[in-house]
From TrEMBL:
The keyword Phosphoprotein does not apply. One of its GO terms (biological process) is methylation. GO terms for molecular function: S-adenosylmethionine-dependent methyltransferase activity. Residues 79-176 form the Methyltransferase type domain. This is Methyltransferase-like protein 7A like protein. The lineage of its organism: Eukaryota, Metazoa, Ecdysozoa, Arthropoda, Chelicerata. The keyword Transferase applies. It comes from the Eukaryota.
Length: 229
């Protein structure tokens, strides 16, 4: 009986998935990235920001702890990957020179609106590119690279991390904040794996079951400080 129920549920699930794939594919063709940026900024942002803001603040507190020896009057060149609408700007250190990078150019309008609230940040430019190939960013040109809730949806984590190491100056800092996979021996991870196909489809390529912290640890950074919340 359990086999029949499981088979029926699996069939319904994957039939629904296939239908959703077709519908979403058509939507993407008609309304490409603009659809996602609007939903993200006007719907998902207000819904999730109350919970995410304390996490963002804690991440930048850790960054500031590792910048404690920096002279406050010296400029700090920062590259933020996947900046979106600029949710992290409120936590930026003093004298920050910002280069923004995002593959979705339709976030630009929302970012520019938000940027006006933080005149203490010197905005340099926006680069529209994928994080796997940031060729417009020069080697060893950044003091800090910021990446929050982005590595879950990139096509190749190793390529992104290699690019991060390339653009960082010696002694530079990589600040990351991600939602990651649960331990593999927990039911929560099984649920993540089960919903991953539809989640990936509806949330702009996000994979909820990636072990991002481990990917960063094995990529050659001199030290990795990681807190789990």
């Amino acid at each position: 009986m359990e086999v029949v129920v499981y088979g029926a549920l699996s069939t319904i699930w994957w039939m629904s998935y296939s239908n959703c794939c077709l519908c979403f594919y058509l939507n993407i063709k008609l309304f490409p990235s603009k659809w996602f940026s609007f939903i993200f900024m006007r719907c998902l942002g207000p819904l999730f920001n109350p919970r995410l803001t304390p996490l963002r603040k804690r991440a930048f507190d850790i960054l500031n702890e590792h910048l404690a020896d920096r002279k406050k009057n010296l400029p700090l060149d920062i590259l933020e990957i996947g900046i979106g609408g600029g949710a992290n700007l409120q936590f930026y250190p003093q004298n920050a020179n910002l280069t923004a990078l995002d593959m979705n150019a339709t976030f630009e309008t929302y970012f520019k609106e938000n940027q006006k609230k933080y005149p203490q940040i010197t905005y340099k430019k926006t680069v529209t590119a994928m994080a796997e190939n940031m060729e417009e960013i020069a080697d060893a040109s950044m003091d800090v690279v910021v990446c929050t809730f982005v590595l879950c949806s990139v096509q190749n984590i190793q390529s992104v991390l290699s690019e991060v190491r390339r653009v960082l100056r010696p002694g530079g800092k990589f600040l990351f904040l991600e939602h990651v996979a649960f331990p593999h021996d927990q039911w929560s991870f099984t649920i993540q794996r089960f919903v991953a196909p539809l989640w990936h489809l509806y949330f702009d390529g996000c994979f909820p079951d990636r072990d991002i912290a481990e990917e960063i640890r094995k990529n050659g950074f001199s030290s990795v400080v990681c807190e789990n919340k």
